[in-house]
């Protein structure tokens, strides 16, 4: 591995113009593909194997006119304080809006609120149900614009007119949050290197890599249905890891230059050693992301594959384009110094990382206990974790969707925002549906049950059940379960679907998939880390540290988004259940990133140990060379992820916060406190591997030992590696 990467880097350094031209050409090619193939994204969920999805499939075949996945919108009207919608003037204004809605593009049906008795008891609030002929992904911008324009006559008459539902959701606008992350990354890189040229290379590398990845994902939207959040999450991860991987290699390149090597040789050695760590760090992230496919929920598979593609591009571009960029920069990465910045030189006392490592090595047990207990306290709120698929209730308070939700809750009760669709499947469905309606009405927490609609064949009937509780309330979840538990009537069964039931099924399926997913991802990564570190204990420690990071992250997310702590500060308008796909996606991403830091930090310790350093001194030297880079990488990732907390999309906001918190916990507590403390306590035992397993495992040579033998090196280039140690240190 190290030898191959060494040769690849030297080739890229020598043929830098050709390599740069090839990558720029690839960017142009993908950009053309994005411009010509891109299609719309969607916020729809499909869940193979769940009752909700099976019921939707039944309706598609037998009653396509009431398909559960057809786009719909609710137009909510409210009279001014003290007024009603039953007066002639206001009624006429509502009818004008209804008339315009009926002639809007793609609209199949509009239910008049006066005919459907969809007027609140006090006469102040009413709603019209708009059904489209297409799914939400196929609603055109023209149709959405017509929906908005239809409200104008009502507003001109002094009425409040707001709209909610899937049909109102356009493609999310890309905010400038990634620019915030880039600015912070630039500042951190300048401080880390003390050089504008050295700081600029990772940024340029990342921009080109993310550009290629995002263009490829955008082009793919024209070929497959893709979630509206998928490109944003791929951008978030791709940007963060691309900067980090380049940062790690540039840092090693500067070290090799200071050892007196020429640019081509320094680039080869930097990629041969640090690049090997990048390969395995990237592989762990990709495994964790692509492993989301085991859950068998399409949106998670899309998100994982798209983000994994962005990470793969980041790895490839770091191994090939970055050496070419280093060739253009040459020794100038050591120049362009900024007065007042040492760029990694800790002065007479040595680098901060080395001083911190010596402190931890002297007091490993107190540091370990403090870190573990502190993380346990932060993780405590995770015991109250509640999952769901919140809808318009978690939209920002200024949006029309949130206003429509609040008006419906005020006029009719929160359950009107999440009605259940009950499908009676069986012969003589009409009679069975009428009896089911009576039973459902007696279950409790039911505000209304509509008369059944039956298909011509008489084998399928549809009831609409309006709960008293809101769509994301626990009481609504219990009601769905009680309806599904009703015994059959005359061979007919009651099946429940609709957006609320879908959310419940997603949560249940994700909960069931969590342990298999952990087993697959952690198992594969454990084997991968054994290959890297030639140890059983180090991968085990890495895995346990990751689980601690995830638990603390869940605790922080629950405290903010479910309990409401710091909600105002972070712009969280409405607390409620945690979005059900978040935990499993967070586990995948945080695991991958945690292994990044594990590989970056501990491979240098392994390298020093293999080349003769005593175990504790290997920890110290590994920190001397790795802590500053890992710290900078973590700050950059936190900045990139935290920038997305300002996004209007609630899922993106939650993901941004969770990923930023996960990186902070893992980098600054697990890797900077727990890892050196445990390594110091274990000593040589940390690197133990049974001899039979050592013979079986292939030698991937991440620390570059074979490369050193090939190049005829007898030392590691770290002149202080064999310093005499005070008695008792090891």
Topology:
Layout: H1 2-14, H2 16-37, H3 51-62, E1 70-78, H4 88-102, E2 107-111, E3 125-135, H5 141-150, H6 152-156, E4 160-164, H7 177-193, H8 196-220, H9 230-258, H10 263-290, H11 298-329, H12 352-362, H13 364-379, E5 387-388, H14 400-412, E6 420-425, H15 429-441, E7 446-449, E8 453-454, E9 460-467, H16 474-484, E10 493-497, H17 499-533, H18 537-562, H19 567-570, E11 578-579, H20 582-610, H21 615-643, H22 650-682, H23 691-696, H24 705-711
Parallel strand pairs: 5-11
Antiparallel strand pairs: 1-3, 1-4, 2-3, 6-9, 6-10, 7-9, 8-9
Helix pairs in contact: 1-2, 1-10, 1-11, 2-8, 2-11, 4-5, 7-8, 7-9, 7-21, 8-9, 8-11, 9-10, 9-11, 9-21, 10-11, 10-17, 10-20, 12-21, 12-22, 13-18, 13-22, 17-18, 17-20, 18-20, 18-22, 20-21, 20-22, 21-22
Provide a brief overview of the structure:
By secondary structure, the chain is of the alpha+beta class.
Q: Can you walk through the features of this model?
A:
The two termini are 32 Å apart. The radius of gyration is 29 Å and the shape is elongated. With 730 residues, it is an alpha+beta fold. Residues 714-730 have low confidence and may be disordered. Strands 6, 7, 8, 9 and 10 form a five-stranded antiparallel β-sheet that branches. It has a four-stranded antiparallel β-sheet with strand order 2-3-1-4, sandwiched between helices. It has a two-stranded parallel sheet with strand order 5-11. It is 60% helix and 8% strand. α8 (196-220) packs antiparallel against α11 (298-329). It has helices at 2-14, 16-37, 51-62, 88-102, 141-150, 152-156, 177-193, 196-220, 230-258, 263-290, 298-329, 352-362, 364-379, 400-412, 429-441, 474-484, 499-533, 537-562, 567-570, 582-610, 615-643, 650-682, 691-696, 705-711, and strands at 70-78, 107-111, 125-135, 160-164, 387-388, 420-425, 446-449, 453-454, 460-467, 493-497, 578-579.
